Amino acid sequence: MSTIFDTFIAPPCHDEIETLYQDEHLVLINKPSGLLSLSGKNPQNLDSVHHRLVQIYPGCTLVHRLDFGTSGLMVVARNKAINAALCQQFSQRTITKVYSALLCGHLENDEGVIDAAIAKDPALFPLMSICALNGKPARSRYQVVERFYHRQEEGTLLPLTRVQLTPETGRTHQLRIHCQQLGHPILGCDLYGGRLLPGTEQTPRLMLHASELHFRHPISEAWMNAKNASPF
């Protein structure tokens, strides 16, 4: 068994967490890019969504996470029973998550499905890898919103595609590695090729935003249809 060393130190995040909805059972938030979901083992990585929220909502727990660079919607449980009920919805895949992203290059097809199993590889930490043999099943759908060119400071044109991504499973780094597999990594993705094209090296953040979250409220059973527009 390989030992994993996590040397990542998160730079300070000065952006606030935006609370979009709250009641006695749960909180819906908009997470800023550049903030950890959970505090790391390293004391320098104490600041996180959970660390901040537990000061306001004692006993709250995360039902799911977003990557450090991803912004957008998260649902946070205010007690263990709510956490268990929401986790069940996630495991039964009755919760729908939709993401907005900017991909490098112009996609050929207007929509499609990426079906590629994902595995952990301690030797490559923190990278995940596509592995049909040892990976867990992973499936994502994509739909093109627009294809355009971004004019850079030196005048060159960078081809980009704005897409809507819907993961049908919830593997670590799923959307990031699936877009790389598609041949069009997410702009600003340092782990999976989103900073390799000329002009993409200085992209200020990972261009991935959790824009929609649809689930059933565990107590009222009302459908919660949360939407939060992409900041890019």
List the helices and strands and how they pair.
Elements: E1 18-22, E2 26-31, H1 49-56, E3 61-62, E4 71-77, H2 80-91, E5 96-104, E6 111-115, E7 118-120, E8 128-130, E9 139-151, E10 157-167, H3 174-181, E11 208-216, E12 223-227
Parallel strand pairs: 4-11
Antiparallel strand pairs: 1-2, 2-4, 3-4, 5-10, 5-11, 6-9, 7-8, 9-10, 11-12
Summarize the structure in words.
It is globular and about 50 Å long. The model has no long low-confidence stretch (mean pLDDT 94). It has helices at residues 49-56, 80-91, 174-181; strands spanning 18-22, 26-31, 61-62, 71-77, 96-104, 111-115, 118-120, 128-130, 139-151, 157-167, 208-216, 223-227. The termini are far apart. Helix content is 12%, strand content 34%. By secondary structure, the protein is mainly beta. The strands form two sheets. Strands 1, 2, 3, 4, 5, 6, 9, 10, 11 and 12 form a ten-stranded mixed β-sheet that branches. A two-stranded antiparallel sheet has the order 7-8. The longest helix is centred in the middle third of the chain and has 12 residues, at 80-91.
Features:
232 residues, mainly beta, ten-stranded mixed sheet, two-stranded antiparallel ribbon, 3 helices, 12% helix, 34% strand
